[in-house]
């Protein structure tokens, strides 16, 4: 009877060791859970960038106004008879 109890106790210790430190143990599970959360955050950020690029592509395909706005914003272009003003922040 004593040998059976000792054997069962040893099996329990082996099972607990495998649970905590084995190849598919709890620590690996926690690390994988963290990696999944990080990847989901990256995916969300990339999805947002993709949506912005898609919206910009749609704007560029649909009309001249998007091209004009982009030229004004990025290259400071103005139409004839317009005055361009640049507002600078003070260096305080």
Automatic annotation (TrEMBL):
Entry annotated with the keyword S-adenosyl-L-methionine: no
Organism superkingdom: Bacteria
Protein's membrane topology: Single-pass type II membrane protein
Subcellular location: Cell inner membrane
All ranges on the Cytoplasmic side of the membrane: 1-3
Pfam family, one: DivIC
InterPro entries: Cell_div_FtsB, FtsL/DivIC
Regions of this protein lying in the Periplasmic compartment: 22-92
Chain's role: Essential cell division protein. May link together the upstream cell division proteins, which are predominantly cytoplasmic, with the downstream cell division proteins, which are predominantly periplasmic.
Protein name per the record: Cell division protein FtsB
Name of the gene this protein is made from: ftsB
């Amino acid at each position: 009877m004593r040998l059976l109890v000792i054997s069962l106790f040893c099996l329990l210790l082996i099972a607990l060791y495998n649970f905590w430190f084995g190849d598919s143990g709890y620590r690996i599970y926690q690390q994988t859970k963290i990696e999944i959360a990080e990847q989901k955050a990256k995916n969300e950020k990339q999805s947002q960038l993709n949506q912005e690029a898609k919206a910009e592509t749609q704007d560029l395909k649909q009309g001249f106004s998007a091209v004009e706005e982009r030229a004004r914003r990025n290259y400071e272009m103005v139409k004839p008879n317009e005055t361009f003003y640049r507002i600078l922040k003070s260096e305080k």
